Amino acid sequence: MRSPVPRFRDVERQASGLQPAQCLPPCHERQNNMWFIRDACGIICAIITWLLVVFAEVVVLFVMLIPSKSLTYSLVNGTLFNSLAFLALASHFRAMCTDPGAVPKGNATREYIESLQLKPGQVVYKCPKCCSIKPDRAHHCSVCKRCIRKMDHHCPWVNNCVGENNQKYFVLFTMYIFLISLHALVMVVFHFLYCFEDDWTKCSTFSPPATVILLILLCFEGLLFLIFTSVMFGTQIHSICTDETGIEQLKKEERRWAKKTKWMNMKAVFGHPFSIAWFSPFSTPDHGKADPYQYVV
Predict the structure, then answer these.
(1) Catalytic residue among 155, 161, 195, 203
(2) Which of 174, 173, 192 is nearest to 184 (CA)?
(3) Where does the Palmitoyltransferase DHHC domain lie (predicted)?
(4) What residues contact 119, with CB distance under 8 A and at least 6 apart?
(5) pLDDT by 10s per residue, the chain, length 297
(6) Is 155 an annotated catalytic residue?
(7) Contact between residue 121 and residue 12 where contact means Cβ atoms under 8 Å apart
(8) Three-state secondary structure readout of the chain
């Protein structure tokens, strides 16, 4: 029996009508295993991301800060830039290697459905692709080959889905990349002004042509990622405040969940209560205890 809602591609079945032979045995995964998607495109994009940050580090340190005559200028800007870059890479690593909220594979069996003791009239969604019981607001990712709770989108730059458990790290990643891009652009402007006023051979350890090329490349990289990450950051904050994922907005899915305030939605993603830990990629947010399966009557 197909779902009456055409936007769902999965199959809706009653517990009594589920065919257990169609499913593999449930996949009991250990929670301490690191999550990593073996996708060639995603791995290449993730490596490129780290290389671009390393390139910015090299240009900022060896072209602009170390040759600077002001020790205070170098120390302040070097500490700030390196701290932001470290937080950006740490956020990227957490977003890439954190389970975004994957639903266990192969648990859509008759025995498991009966053990849930559903009320008469209740139905469950079964994903025919990964053969799992699909919670409300979960979507199947063709790259991760799993159903992901509150899946926003699959991002190749972090080689992972952005979902319920790692959205905080993805938001922090976009925010810190935006900040280091802005900081790098400001330093490039000041360095160009400094070199125009002084001898180009004294404003960098590299030759003048190499210095100009490196600064132009850094400027191009900074502008590109400044625009890209600012858009992504704003989109993510809007999705969090409205409690509506990117897929739900794209498909214009009907809201079937309780509406909460914007502040409550922010705390649901970044943790409760508000603290400096919101901005730390090393702090795991406490999402609270919630029923992993929300059934639609």
Answers:
(1) 155
(2) 192
(3) 126-252
(4) none
(5) 333 333 333 333 333 334 443 555 444 444 446 799 999 999 999 999 999 999 999 999 999 998 888 899 999 999 999 999 999 999 999 999 999 999 888 777 788 877 777 777 777 788 888 888 888 889 999 999 999 999 999 999 999 999 999 999 999 999 999 999 999 999 999 888 877 766 666 677 778 888 889 999 999 999 999 999 999 999 999 999 999 998 888 888 777 777 888 999 999 999 888 899 999 999 998 765 444 444 333
(6) yes
(7) no
(8) CCCCCCCCCCEEECHHHCCHHHCCCCCCCCCCCCCCCCCHHHHHHHHHHHHHHHHHHHHHHHHHHCCCCCHHHHHHHHHHHHHHHHHHHHHHHHHHHCCCCECCCCCCCHHHHHHCCCCCCCCEEEECCCCEEECCCEEEECCCCEEEECCCEEECCCCEEECCCCHHHHHHHHHHHHHHHHHHHHHHHHHHHHHHHCCHHHCCCCCHHHHHHHHHHHHHHHHHHHHHHHHHHHHHHHHHHHCCCHHHHHHCCCCCCCCCCHHHHHHHHHCCCCCHHHHCCCCCCCCCCCCCCCCCC
